[in-house]
Amino acid sequence: MQRMTALFSAALLSLGLAATQAQAQQDEAAANNAEQAQATAPAQDFSDSQLQQFADASKEIAVISQEYTKQLQAAEGEQAQEDVRKEANDEMVKAVQDSGLEVDTFNAIGQAIQQDPELMQRVQEMAKASTASEGENS
Fold it and tell me: Tell me, what's the pLDDT at 136?
């Protein structure tokens, strides 16, 4: 269960992939803005289909994040790092869109999950179930 929580945390954090020491101040400002947005975000009801799409996209984003984190660490110079971040972001956006969700919907679900432990539990169970069925189909 801790692995699933870590997976979703990584997936949610990976959307910001710009978490490097050189950008600590920007990240702090972005975090403050995100907190304000979360505080004002209206509660939404998401369908099981949307939650499953979120779970599937989150798994893919976690993989992308791991791959690009290695590239980001190996990149030399600010421009090279920025290029890696942009490429990673593009791949993550594509993964979300390929899941059938809009990026805004994905982000809204991510925010809702952070605020609602029961919703997080539902999505984790969906991800676990889809992972189990993928193993059976392989």
Answer: 65
